[in-house]
Amino acid sequence: MKLLLKIASYLFHPIWMPFAGSMFYFIFIPRFFPEEVIKAKLLAIAIITIFIPIVFYFLLKNLGKASSIFLDNVEERRWPLFFFMLLCMMVLNQILNLYNYPALFYYFVGILGSSLIAYIFTWFGTKVSLHMVGLSGLLMFVIGFCIYFHLYFIYTISFFLIALGLTASSRLYYKAHSNWEISLGILVGLIPQIVVLKLWL
To answer: Are 171 and 127 a contacting pair, CB within 8 Å?
Structure first.
């Protein structure tokens, strides 16, 4: 069980969530996109939301500004969150557009909103659980996607609910967050996605 909780912290790390939502979108959307377009979009999103943040993390680590990939200290989160917001805006401006990819476009708008809220909380000394932000945001996106396209991915939604509970347990077990920070993370992830949901449903 201890190993499972440890794996959950890495497997459901927030850095994977934007790409996971993008993969889900292109795999299950009942609309044709050329294969080369899908590959190009996913590669660009992976580079911007995964590889560039990892390089930025190692830069901060070498400068002594980050102690671990989980950014345990609240002050350590400010620069990564600010930088990630810039990357989200790059995805929205350069990779996606509202006309061709409305659901995915607004998913990233929701991610940007959640990142901004989490960033603001750092200035008040509050360490929102970014694991919960990422997972709950992805869960809400999947639910909205299913509603919009009249799909019944009950097992997929159940999987993400289980993953949310398992990851929350992991963060509490390793004393990375309090119950309040976990709950706050879920709200910060859910609310922006619910707000933008009204724009594309």
So the answer is: no
Start-to-end Cα distance in the chain: 39
The total number of structural domains that make up the chain: 1
Other beta carbons within 10 angstroms of residue 167's beta carbon come to: 25
Angle subtended by helix axes 102-122 and 17-28, to nearest 10: 170
Task: Please name which of 92, 174, 86 lies closest in space to residue 131, comparing C-alpha atoms.
Answer: 174
The C-alpha R_g of the chain, in whole angstroms, comes to 16
pLDDT digits (tens, 9 = 90+) for 129-163: 999 999 999 999 999 999 988 888 999 999 999 99
DSSP H helices, 47-178, are 52-62, 78-90, 102-122, 130-149, 154-173
| Total residues found in the chain within this entry | 201
C-alpha–C-alpha distance, residues 49 and 54, integer Å? 9
SS (H, E, C) 142-180: HHHHHHHHCCCCHHHHHHHHHHHHHHHHHHHHCCCCCHH
Range(s) of the domain holding residue 178: 2-200
